[in-house]
Amino acid sequence: MTPEYNHSTTGALKTAIDFLFFEWHDKAAGVVGYGVSGGVRAAEHLPQVLGQVKVADVQAAVELLMHADFEDYTTFKPAAHQEDMLSKLLNQVVSWSKALRPLRM
């Protein structure tokens, strides 16, 4: 999950990804972005970063809007359709993780 900060992911997340460089190899990931515009620019940039550490990102993504999926911008209360999107994302991550398992052995 990444918030959008200056049209990208946060520096803290990028540092964490860089620090754990080898631990990410041959794994799958789904991207959940949040922000005023659903974190779409961060969600678009994050797969580029993950690709550099050999992470396969899945096609499905979840974009959470601050005004629709958070009550008073603080309490997480996702809209009903977000459950379906998250389910698709998780199913894809599980499938890709299973497919990539032989590369990690």
TrEMBL record:
Domain NADPH-dependent FMN reductase-like: start-end pairs: 2-60
Gene3D superfamilies in the cross-refs: 3.40.50.360
Pfam families the UniProt entry points to: FMN_red (PF03358)
GO annotations of cellular component type: cytosol
GO molecular function: FMN binding; oxidoreductase activity
SUPFAM superfamilies: Flavoproteins (SSF52218)
Domain of life of the source: Bacteria
Name of the protein in question: NADPH-dependent FMN reductase
